[in-house]
Amino acid sequence: MSDAELVADGVDHSLDPRVIPLQRISGALVFALPALGSLVFVVMADDPPAWLRVAVWLTFVAITQWHAYRWPPRAYAHTSYRVDEQGIEIRKGVHWRVVINVPKSRVQHIDVSQGPVERKYGLGTLVIYTAGTDHAKVELEGLEHGRALSIREHLLPRPELLAESGDAV
Question: What is the fold, at CATH topology level, of the domain defined by 3-14+81-165?
Fold first, then answer.
């Protein structure tokens, strides 16, 4: 039995737990850019007094960094996926919950990507492009890279099935 067939177990799976530190790093970097940009205005402004501008800026930075640290475990706890013979189902969302079902028959193509930080943690992002307008691009971040490749292989149309249906390979 191939790895692609083993992933279609019909069981709900959590993301790889290494996604939590990865998202913490990404969040800290994303929030650092506006913080540095706003520092220019804090230094250049004339009103209100400097101590108040600095206090507001430090509060903003502290809240955003706290959020970047605290959010990833919550998002991790509310994200799961299930792969079966029909396709993949992704459940995510802390406040607004979303359930996305992608049947294999709607899959156009699939990418597995890795940024530099994802590569350091051995993780990847599965990107599924579907036929249709709603959820035409479905992303599942935080998968172990090998597992993402196995899911991709499972969801892609098999050449022998295409030949049977009369479609060109």
Answer: PH-domain like (2.30.29)
